[in-house]
C-alpha cells in the first residue's frame, strides 16, 4: 500500500509537469516587453515553485479568486525564463542548430497584430469588440462575452493574447484543471482531501467572477490595468445533467459578467461529428449566442497567409526551404498553423531537406507535369508531415457522385502501364484519391455510404443512361448482399465482418464510379438523406401494429401470416367498408393512410435521433 | 364474422377441397402416434384449415378454446439476457405462434418455447403423459440459425411434443427439418373446387348467383380459396344482386403495382426509376412483402411484354429475387431489377422501332 502511494505521488507530479509544460505552450504572454526585465535567471527554480504551488492548490481544492492572478504570475515566471532564451534566438540560430532550443510554435508566437496569420477582418472585429468594452464606461453594452469558434490551430488564443497586449490589457486565463485520476483520488481522500468535480470548480470560479470581478493579483505590478478574461477550455461534461449545469453556469456568466470575456470553442471537423463532445460544443455555441454572447467564427488559415508566416520563420531561422515545399506544408496542414509550423520545424531537422524532398517527389512525375499539387500531396512526401486530412461524409459523397475524371489526353499517358480492358469497361482515370482512401478519410461506414449513394446516385446520371442506372443498381445490390452476409452473427466473426464491410463499401463506391459513365452535366445537387431510413422505420411500426392486431381482427382460432394480412385482409377490409363486423374496428385506423402519413411526419421531425436508434438496434442484432 | 372464417370447415370430415388428405390425416391421428408434420403449399390452399381440423380431431372441441397471450420470454443468451415479446395462441393442448415475428431473435424463441412446453406436459385421462402440439407458422421465414436450433430441439424433446410446421415453400426449410417431418403438400384448389365452395356459400347465405359469376371470381382469385371467398364477400357488399359482368375489384396494392408497371413501360430513364422507387417505398411502408411485390411486378410487366423478351426478364427477376433473400434491404434489389428491365426494354424498343 505504501508503495502504491509513492507511485501515486510520482504520477501526480508527472502530470503537473506535463500540465505546466502544456500550458506554457498554449500561453502567450501579454506585455512581454515590460516584463522581460523581471526575467528569472533560474527557470528550474521557477518550475519547482510552480509545481509545489500547483500541488498546494490541488490540495486546497478551493478556487480562490486571488489564485487566478497568482497562477498568472506563476506562469509569468516560467515564461520569463523561457523568454530569455527566446530573446536570444538570433544568436542561437546563428549556431545553425534549430534543435538547440524550443519549439518554433512557441518561439514564433505572433507578437504583433501584423504577425497574426488570422484574417485581418476577423482580428479587427475582435479588436474593436475589446476596445469598445475596455474603453467605454461600464453598463453601456448588454453583455461582455465573446465566443470565438474555429477549428484547432487557427490562432484563436493567439489572437486574444496579441490583441490584449496591443490594447495593454492583462489576460487572465481559466484553464481546466487537470483531471484527478482514481489512484490520486484515493491518495487524496486518505489524506483527508475531498474531491471536487471540475465542473464545480468552474461553477465556483464563474460565480466569483460574476460577483467580485477580477481581484488584482496580490503582487500587483501594474496598479491599474484593464483585464480580459479568457476561458480557453470548458470543463468536460458527461451526461445531460452536467451539461445542463454547464449551460446554466455559462448563461449566468454571459448575463452578468462585467469583464470582457472571451470563450474559445474548438470546432471539430464534420467528420468527427459522431463524437458526443462535438455535438455538445455545437449546442453550447448556439446556446451562448442565444444568451446574448457575441460570436466570431475563425476560418482555417488561408494558404497564402500560412505561406507568408512559414517563409518568415524560414528567413529568421536561415533555412533555405523551397517555396514548393512550403506550399506543400501549408496545404497539408489543412489550415492549422500550429501544425504547419511544427511540420516545418520537423522538415528542417532533416540533414538535407532539399535532397530528401526531391527524392520523394520524383516518383509521381506524370502528376507533377500536370502541376496538380493536390495529387502530389498524395505521394509519399505528404506522409512525412502534416495532418491526415479528414473529409466530411458529404464531401466524400460529393466526390463519388460527381465522378470527376481526367480528360482524354491524360488517359493516353496513363495507358502504358495498365493492362488492357475492353473499351466497354475502360474508364478515364479518376480525379481523386483512390476511393478507399477517400472513404477512410471520411470515416465512412459501409451501410450508410451505400444508403446515401443509393438515394442520390440517380440524380447524377445522364437522362438517357438507363444502362448506367442498371450497372449502378446492380453494384449496390452486390454491396447490400455483402453487408448482409454476416448479419446477426456475434463477436467472434468481427474480423470477417470488418473485411466484408470494407469490401462492401468499396464495391458500392467503385460500382457507382464505374457505372456512372455518362454523368449528367454538373450542376448543383443537394445530397439527400436516405428516405429508405424513414421507410424502414415506419414499415417497422406498421408491422408491429399489424402483428398486434392480427388476433383481435380475424376472430379465427388461428394466426394468419403477416403477408396474408397485408396483401389480402387489409385491402379487403377496406373494400368492405369499415366496421361490417364487430371485431374489425381495430383495423380501421390502421387502414387510414393518414396514419402512416403521421408516422412520416414524426419521423422526419425527429430526424437524426430517430434514425440513429434504429442503426444502433441493427448493429446490436 | 368474415365469410372466410364463418364457412371454414371445422372437422376433417367436412373438408371440401382436400378430402383425400383429410381422410389420411384422420387415420394417422386415430392410430395414436403422430409424427411431426410439415404442411406446405401456396397461400389460400387450406393449410390452416386442415391444421385446425386436425387439432380438433386430436383433442376434441377443447382445441377450439384458445386464448391469446402476449408473453415475454426471458432468454439467456450467453453474456446477456434478452427479453423477447411474442404473441401466442394457446389451448390446453396446443400452442400456436409465428416465431419469425421475433426477427433476428427467432432462434431463441423456438428453443425456449419448446423447453417450456416440455416442462409442463398435460396428463391425459389414462394417467399417461400425453403430448402437446406446437404449431409454428411461416417456418420458411425463419433464419437459418433458427432452423438449426429448431432441428436440435425437435430431436431432444420429441417425446414431449409434436410440431406442426406450416409454410408456403418447403424449399426454404432446411433438409434436416424436412426429413424429420411428414411432409404434406397442399395444392392450390382447382377453379372447379373453388366454384363449388362459392356456390355452397351462396346457397347458405341465400344469394342468387348468376351463371358464370362464381367462375369469374374463381378465375380472378389466382386459385386461392381465401382470396376467392374474400372477393366474393366484397362483391356482395358492392353490388347485389350480382350480374355476370360485374367488375371484380382487385386489391389496392395490386392496382398500385400495375400502375408502377405501366410507368416503367412508358419511360425508361433514371428519373423515372427514381419515381418508381418512391412508389415502391409506398408499398414497403404498408408492409407488402418485397417478394410479393417483385412477383406481382413481374406478372404485370410480362402481360404487356413481347414474347422474345420474356425469358430474359424472368431470368433477371429470379436473379434479383434470390439476391433479395441473401441481402438485407429489399429496395436495392427490386430497383436493380427495374433498372435492368428498363435497360432491356429500351434497347428492344430502339432495335425494333429505331
Placed side by side, the strands forming the largest sheet of chain A appear as: 2-3-4-1-5
Q: What is the average per-residue confidence, as pLDDT of chain A, rounded to a whole number?
A: 66
Largest sheet of chain A: 5 strands, parallel
Helix content percent band of chain A: 55-70%
CATH topology of the largest domain in chain B: Rossmann fold
CATH superfamily of the largest domain in chain B: P-loop containing nucleotide triphosphate hydrolases
What's the alpha carbon Rg of chain A, rounded to whole Å?
A: 31 Å
Coarse structural class of chain A: mainly alpha
How many E-type strands of chain A?
Answer: 5
Q: Choose one word for the global shape of chain B.
A: globular
Largest interface: A-B, 70 and 74 residues
User: Strand arrangement, largest sheet of chain B?
Assistant: 2-3-4-5-6-1-7
Q: Give the proportion of residues in helices of chain B.
A: 40-55%
Q: What is the string of SSEs of chain B from the N terminus onward?
A: HHEHEEEHEHEHEHHHHHHHH
The number of helical segments of chain B is 14
The CATH architecture of the largest domain in chain B comes to 3-Layer(aba) Sandwich
Kindly list the characteristics that best describe this protein:
heterodimer, A: 621 residues, five-stranded parallel β-sheet, disordered C terminus, B: 354 residues, Rossmann fold, Zinc Finger, Delta Prime, domain 3, 13% strand
How would you portray this structure in words?
Chain A: InterPro entries: AAA+_ATPase, Checkpoint_prot_Rad17_Rad24, P-loop_NTPase, RFC_lid. Chain A: This is AAA+ ATPase domain-containing protein. Chain A: Its main location: nucleus. The complex is a heterodimer of chains A (621) and B (354). Chain A has 28 helices and 5 strands. With 621 residues, chain A is mainly alpha-helical. Among the domains of chain A are: 82 residues, no CATH class; 136 residues, no CATH class; 89 residues. Chain A has a 5-stranded parallel β-sheet, with helices on both faces. Chain A is globular and about 80 Å long. The two termini of chain A are 45 Å apart. With 354 residues, chain B is an alpha/beta fold. Chain B folds into 3 domains: 183 residues, P-loop containing nucleotide triphosphate hydrolases (Rossmann fold); 48 residues; 102 residues, Zinc Finger, Delta Prime, domain 3. Chain B has 14 helices and 7 strands. In chain B, strands 2-3-4-5-6-1-7 form a 7-stranded mixed β-sheet, with helices on both faces. In chain B, strand 4, helix 4 and strand 5 form a beta-alpha-beta unit. In chain B, helix 10 packs antiparallel against helix 11. The radius of gyration of chain B is 23 Å and the shape is globular. Chain B starts with a helix and ends with a helix. The model of chain B has no long low-confidence stretch (mean pLDDT 85). At the A-B interface, helix 22, helix 23, helix 25 and helix 26 of A face helix 3, helix 9, helix 11, helix 13 and helix 14 of B.
Amino acid at each position: 500500500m505504501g508503495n502504491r502511494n509513492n507511485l501515486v505521488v510520482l504520477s501526480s507530479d508527472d502530470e503537473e509537469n506535463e500540465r505546466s509544460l502544456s500550458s506554457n505552450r498554449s500561453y502567450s504572454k501579454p506585455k512581454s516587453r515590460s516584463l522581460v526585465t523581471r526575467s528569472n535567471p533560474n527557470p528550474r527554480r521557477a518550475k519547482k515553485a510552480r509545481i509545489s504551488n500547483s500541488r498546494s492548490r490541488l490540495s486546497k481544492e478551493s478556487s480562490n479568486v486571488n489564485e487566478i492572478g497568482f497562477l498568472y504570475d506563476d506562469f509569468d515566471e516560467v515564461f520569463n525564463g523561457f523568454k530569455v532564451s527566446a530573446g536570444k534566438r538570433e544568436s542561437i540560430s546563428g549556431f545553425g542548430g534549430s534543435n538547440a532550443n524550443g519549439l518554433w510554435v512557441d518561439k514564433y508566437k505572433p507578437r504583433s497584430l501584423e504577425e497574426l496569420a488570422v484574417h485581418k477582418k476577423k482580428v479587427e472585429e475582435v479588436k474593436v469588440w475589446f476596445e469598445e468594452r475596455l474603453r467605454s464606461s461600464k453598463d453601456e453594452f448588454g453583455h461582455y462575452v465573446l465566443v470565438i469558434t474555429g477549428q484547432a490551430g487557427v490562432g484563436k488564443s493567439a489572437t486574444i493574447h496579441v490583441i490584449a497586449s496591443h490594447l495593454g490589457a492583462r489576460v487572465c486565463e481559466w484553464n481546466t484543471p487537470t483531471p484527478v485520476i482514481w489512484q490520486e483520488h484515493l491518495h487524496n481522500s486518505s489524506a483527508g482531501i475531498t474531491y471536487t468535480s471540475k465542473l464545480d470548480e468552474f461553477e465556483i470560479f464563474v460565480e466569483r467572477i460574476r460577483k467580485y470581478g477580477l481581484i488584482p493579483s496580490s503582487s500587483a505590478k501594474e496598479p491599474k490595468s484593464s483585464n480580459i478574461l479568457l476561458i480557453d477550455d470548458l470543463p468536460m461534461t458527461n451526461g445531460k445533467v452536467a451539461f445542463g449545469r454547464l449551460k446554466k453556469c455559462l448563461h449566468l456568466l454571459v448575463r452578468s459578467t462585467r469583464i470582457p470575456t472571451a470563450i474559445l470553442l474548438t470546432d471539430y471537423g464534420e467528420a468527427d461529428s459522431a463524437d458526443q463532445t462535438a455535438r455538445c460544443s455545437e449546442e453550447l455555441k448556439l446556446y451562448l449566442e442565444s444568451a446574448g454572447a457575441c460570436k466570431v467564427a475563425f476560418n482555417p488559415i488561408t494558404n497564402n497567409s500560412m505561406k507568408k508566416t512559414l517563409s518568415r520563420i524560414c528567413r529568421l531561422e536561415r533555412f533555405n526551404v523551397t517555396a514548393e515545399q512550403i506550399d506543400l506544408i501549408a496545404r497539408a496542414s489543412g489550415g492549422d498553423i500550429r501544425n504547419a509550423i511544427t511540420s516545418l520545424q520537423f522538415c528542417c531537422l532533416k540533414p538535407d531537406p532539399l535532397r530528401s524532398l526531391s527524392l520523394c517527389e520524383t516518383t509521381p512525375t506524370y502528376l507533377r507535369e500536370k502541376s496538380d499539387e493536390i495529387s502530389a500531396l498524395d505521394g509519399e512526401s505528404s506522409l512525412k508531415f502534416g495532418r491526415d486530412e479528414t473529409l466530411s461524409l458529404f464531401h466524400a459523397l460529393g466526390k463519388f457522385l460527381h465522378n470527376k475524371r481526367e480528360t482524354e489526353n491524360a488517359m493516353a499517358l496513363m495507358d502504358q502501364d495498365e493492362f488492357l480492358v475492353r473499351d466497354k469497361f475502360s474508364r478515364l482515370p479518376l480525379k481523386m484519391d483512390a476511393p478507399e482512401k477517400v472513404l477512410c478519410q471520411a470515416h465512412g461506414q459501409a451501410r450508410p455510404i451505400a444508403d446515401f449513394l443509393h438515394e442520390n446516385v440517380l440524380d447524377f446520371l445522364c437522362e438517357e443512361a438507363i444502362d448506367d442506372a442498371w450497372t449502378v443498381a446492380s453494384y449496390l445490390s452486390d454491396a447490400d448482399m455483402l453487408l448482409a452476409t454476416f448479419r446477426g452473427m456475434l463477436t467472434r466473426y468481427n474480423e470477417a465482418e470488418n473485411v466484408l464491410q470494407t469490401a462492401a463499401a468499396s464495391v458500392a463506391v467503385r460500382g457507382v464510379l464505374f457505372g456512372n459513365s455518362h454523368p449528367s452535366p454538373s450542376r448543383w445537387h443537394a445530397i439527400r438523406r436516405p428516405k429508405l431510413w424513414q421507410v424502414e422505420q415506419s414499415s417497422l411500426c406498421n408491422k408491429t401494429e399489424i402483428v398486434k392486431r392480427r388476433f383481435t381482427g380475424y376472430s379465427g382460432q388461428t394466426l394468419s401470416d403477416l403477408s396474408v394480412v397485408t396483401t389480402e385482409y387489409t385491402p379487403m377490409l377496406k373494400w368492405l367498408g369499415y366496421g361490417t363486423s364487430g371485431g374489425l374496428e381495430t383495423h380501421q385506423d390502421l387502414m387510414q393512410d393518414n396514419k402512416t402519413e403521421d408516422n412520416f411526419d414524426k419521423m422526419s421531425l425527429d430526424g437524426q435521433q430517430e434514425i440513429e436508434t434504429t442503426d444502433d438496434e441493427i448493429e446490436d442484432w | 364474422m368474415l365469410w372466410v372464417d364463418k364457412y371454414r370447415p371445422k372437422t376433417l370430415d367436412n373438408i371440401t377441397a382436400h378430402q383425400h388428405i383429410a381422410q389420411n390425416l384422420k387415420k394417422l391421428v386415430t392410430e395414436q402416434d403422430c409424427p411431426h408434420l410439415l404442411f406446405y403449399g401456396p397461400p389460400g390452399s387450406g393449410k390452416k384449415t386442415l391444421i385446425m381440423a386436425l387439432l380438433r380431431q386430436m383433442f376434441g372441441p377443447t382445441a377450439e378454446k384458445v386464448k391469446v397471450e402476449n408473453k415475454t420470454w426471458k432468454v439467456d443468451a450467453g453474456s446477456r439476457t434478452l427479453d423477447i415479446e411474442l404473441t401466442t395462441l394457446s389451448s390446453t393442448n396446443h400452442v400456436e405462434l409465428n416465431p419469425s415475428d421475433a426477427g433476428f431473435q427467432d432462434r431463441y424463441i423456438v428453443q425456449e418455447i419448446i423447453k417450456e412446453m416440455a416442462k409442463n406436459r398435460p396428463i391425459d385421462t389414462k394417467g399417461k403423459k400425453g403430448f402437446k402440439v406446437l404449431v409454428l407458422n411461416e417456418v420458411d421465414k425463419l433464419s437459418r440459425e433458427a432452423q438449426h436450433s429448431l432441428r436440435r430441439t425437435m430431436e431432444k424433446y420429441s417425446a414431449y411434443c409434436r410440431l406442426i410446421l406450416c409454410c408456403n415453400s418447403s424449399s426454404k426449410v432446411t433438409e434436416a427439418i424436412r426429413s424429420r417431418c411428414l411432409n404434406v403438400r397442399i395444392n392450390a384448389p382447382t377453379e372447379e373446387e373453388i366454384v363449388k365452395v362459392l356456390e355452397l356459400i351462396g346457397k347458405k347465405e341465400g344469394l342468387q348467383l348468376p351463371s358464370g359469376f362464381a367462375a369469374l371470381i374463381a378465375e380472378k382469385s389466382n386459385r386461392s380459396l381465401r382470396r376467392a371467398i374474400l372477393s366474393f364477400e366484397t362483391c356482395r357488399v358492392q353490388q347485389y344482386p350480382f350480374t355476370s359482368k360485374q367488375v371484380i375489384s382487385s386489391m389496392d396494392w395490386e392496382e398500385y403495382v400495375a400502375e408502377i408497371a405501366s410507368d416503367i413501360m412508358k419511360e425508361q430513364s433514371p428519373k423515372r426509376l427514381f419515381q418508381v422507387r418512391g412508389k415502391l417505398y409506398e408499398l414497403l411502408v404498408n408492409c407488402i412483402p418485397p417478394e410479393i411485390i417483385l412477383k406481382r411486378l413481374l406478372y404485370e410487366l410480362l402481360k404487356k411484354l413481347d414474347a422474345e423478351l420474356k425469358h430474359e426478364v424472368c431470368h433477371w427477376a429470379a436473379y434479383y429475387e434470390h439476391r433479395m433473400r441473401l441481402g438485407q434491404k429489399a429496395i436495392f434489389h427490386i430497383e436493380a431489377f427495374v433498372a435492368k428491365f428498363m435497360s432491356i426494354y429500351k434497347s428492344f424498343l430502339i432495335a425494333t422501332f429505331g
